[in-house]
Amino acid sequence: MIVHFIQHSGVLIEFEDKTLLFDYWKGKLTIPLEKPLYIFISHRHSDHYTKEALDFDGIVIADQGVHLPLDPMHHTVAPGDKIHIDDVLISVFGSTDEGVSFLVETNQKKIFHAGDLNLWHWKDESTLDEIEEAKILFDRELSMIPNDGLDLAMFPVDPRLGSDFDEGARVFTLKTNPAYFLPLHFSGNPDKVQTFADWIRSTDTTLLRSDQGITTFEIK
């Protein structure tokens, strides 16, 4: 499995027999034409989706809030859905923002893309009630996701959130114990990026650091 980080939350994953594309909106992209392509769209925010993604020759699996043209290759989904396309099993979970998150099982791998699922609060600015509400919503969504067995988790680690920018990522990592973790929204303050990298060393999870200029990773 080869993982290509594109930009922000956009990720391309290559197997020998298929390609998965998550939340593409812009950035350099080379899609192998000889393999089936599965396009995942977690929601319609402009930093996760562009209509150009529909121009690629592939099967589209998108949150129901994305307005897809009628096409037998297009599938709209909602939290709680589970669909089987070819040999790809897709379980759809919720988000604490708009849209959905995806658990994709194929080629003996379990891959999770969070979309905008995260513990979204700005502790330096939010009220105690807002923080508590955010934690309740996040815990509720997290309780639906399998506890272990993930080969790759792609999840927001957003330095814009302030002092607790990686709280959601830490909680998610400790609960699901993924073999590899690829941060999304992972840019900005290099000190905060390093803080999360230092923390995750205490776990059994390997961090894929696209912030260091490496954008392609091979996972056995």
Throw out a few tags for this protein.
220 residues; alpha/beta; Metallo-beta-lactamase, Chain A; seven-stranded mixed β-sheet; 3 helices; 16% helix; 30% strand
Care to describe what's here?
This protein has 220 residues and is of the alpha/beta class. It has one domain: Metallo-beta-lactamase, Chain A. Helices cover 16% and strands 30% of the residues. It has helices at residues 128-142, 167-176, 190-200; strands at residues 2-7, 10-14, 19-22, 37-41, 59-63, 74-77, 82-85, 88-93, 101-106, 109-113, 152-156, 180-184, 206-207, 216-218. A seven-stranded mixed beta sheet has the order 6-5-4-3-2-1-14, with no helix packed on it. The chain has a seven-stranded mixed beta sheet with strand order 7-8-9-10-11-12-13, with helices on one face. The longest helix has 15 residues, at 128-142. It is globular. It starts with a strand and ends with a strand. The relative contact order is 0.14. The model has no long low-confidence stretch (mean pLDDT 91).
